[in-house]
Amino acid sequence: MSTPQARPGFTQSRLSLEFPMSLGVYEKYDEAQKAVDYLSDNDFPVQNCMIVGTDLKQVERVTGRLTTARVALGGALSGLWLGLFIGLVFALFTEEGALGVILSTALFGAVFGLIWALVGYAATRGRRDFTSVSQVVATRYEVLVEHKHAQQGRDLLTRMPEARQQPFNS
After folding, report:
1. Beta strands in 4-129 (DSSP E)
2. Most distant pair of Cα atoms in the chain: their distance
3. What is the pTM of this model?
4. What separation in angstroms does the CA of 48 have from each of 23, 54, 102?
């Protein structure tokens, strides 16, 4: 298993705190964000805070049935766009008959996309005959802060209107 590479100029230390302590645990990200915003509005050094999503789960929303006709149409349209793009690039280097080049590559792309999509769909043998979107979400969000600012942050958050958080972790 490999470790993810950091972006140049972006060190791992920016995503960690030296001695983190919990200010509160929230059910929704918006609630944790409001807590940090409240701290910011009250001149708290929020550069010492982190919002950490925990208890991750994957949520998948089924959006529809996947039929041979939908697969064929999607493949043909995808291939058509690719063929059109390639045709436009080729047309830049063609002195005559540019329209013919564009139309023929678009048609070839549509046929290729149709065949490729149908072969891929046939290979699944009906194991996944639906379309969906998925997302990884956290079940709860914890606001952490450097230990030297923990008590000040807790005191501020107790005065926050509509504070809906679980008790602080000590």
Report:
1. 20-26, 49-65
2. 77
3. 0.58
4. 12, 19, 57
Q: Measure the CA–CA gap between 13 and 98, rounded to whole angstroms.
A: 55
List domains and CATH numbers for the chain: 16-60+137-158 (3.30.70), 67-128 (no CATH)
CB of 93 closer than 8 Å to CB of 163: no
- What confidence tens digit (pLDDT) does each residue in 118-157 have? 999 999 887 888 989 999 999 999 999 999 999 999 999 9
82 token code pair? 């690719």
**Residues in the chain, overall count:** 170
Residue 94 has pLDDT above 70, yes or no: yes
* Residue 128: strand pairing partners: none
Question: pLDDT (tens digit, 9 = 90+) per residue, 15-32?
Answer: 788 889 999 999 999 999
Residues 140/55, Cβ–Cβ less than 8 Å = yes
